[in-house]
Amino acid sequence: MSGAAGCTMPSDSHAQRKAGSLRAVLVALLVLGAQAGAVPAAAAADADLPAASRVDTAPTAVTASAVSFDSADRRTRLVGYLFRPAGEGPFPAIVLMHGRAGLYSSLPGSTVSLASLSARHRYWARYWAGQGYVALLVDGFAPRGNPAGFGRATYADRPPEVSEQTVRPLDADGAAAFLRARTDVISDRIGLLGWSNGAMAALARVTRPGDAGPFRAAVALYPGCAIPERDRARPQVPLLLLIAGEDEEVSPQRCVRWAGAVAATPGFAWHLHEGAAHNFDGLALGTRATEADRKAAAEAERLASRFLAQHLAGRPPP
Predict the structure, then answer these.
(1) How many CB atoms lie within 10 A of CB 147?
(2) How far apart (Å, rounded) are the C-alpha atoms in residues 75 and 78?
(3) pLDDT digits (tens, 9 = 90+) for 219-272
(4) Nearest to 124 by CA among 28, 19, 48, 54
(5) Beta-carbon-side half-sphere exposure of residue 297 (alpha carbons within 13 Å)
(6) Domain spanning 2-311: which CATH class is it, in words?
(7) pTM of the entire structure?
(8) Of the chain's two ends, which shows fewer C-beta atoms within 10 Å, N or C?
(9) Of 104, 108, 107, 100, nearest to 117 (Cα)?
(10) What contacts 176, CB < 8 A, 6 or more positions away?
């Protein structure tokens, strides 16, 4: 089924200066670990899935590197992973926001590093770079002391410093500012894509009334839609909403209702992936996927590619 259509800086007390110094040391270690694979990450809630049933078709010329930049919360130095197409550019760009389990594999020996990115995140970042976008994966959890993310049914117990409503949208803005400062990025053609909790952060950012922000378009994969439905939020930029029909973590019915309520918004499109589970695109990279999950992953890739080609790359949909 388818449809179309700041935190302030802390005061200058000794304790806060000491805490700031400790945070700076932590981020420096995280960046070094991201580059060299040296900082251990605890086991993530969702197992990484080994055998791939989807094929990575990104060109071998895609390059990847660890980077760091400031969140727009004005207090957190974030870690990111930049995937870049071959050539000088400039290119459109995409900010990628992970879900509740974080960026990294849960396999033994995983670290906070480029080498330990989960299969889903590595696949999508390479995919977008292969399509001609600069893709930036943002780690909003490890710099705040939660490298492994959070398990299921922990939403009410998560610390406020990783809130997808008030904090992670500021991480997205910080990532966009980092990209806009690069000479190989087209500064007014930056998109935002998130999965699950990261998709909720994306929705929170692009439904802010009267504030389109730095993003030209957004894609949200299987978010929770309770808050935008409750607040009668409306997208401020073109938005593609991809809903898992058999989602066991969030309510697909809420997302369908919200999609119906905002269906007339210019640039809004949505699709219900019948029978697909939460994290269907991650499952499709392993051996536990159902046929519905694999179909949904292929559909999501096709729909997101067409949507962003139209709104970011300036290309008509194929």
Answers:
(1) 24
(2) 10
(3) 999 999 999 999 999 999 999 999 999 999 999 999 999 999 999 999 999 999
(4) 54
(5) 24
(6) alpha beta
(7) 0.84
(8) C
(9) 104
(10) 95, 190, 192, 213, 214, 215
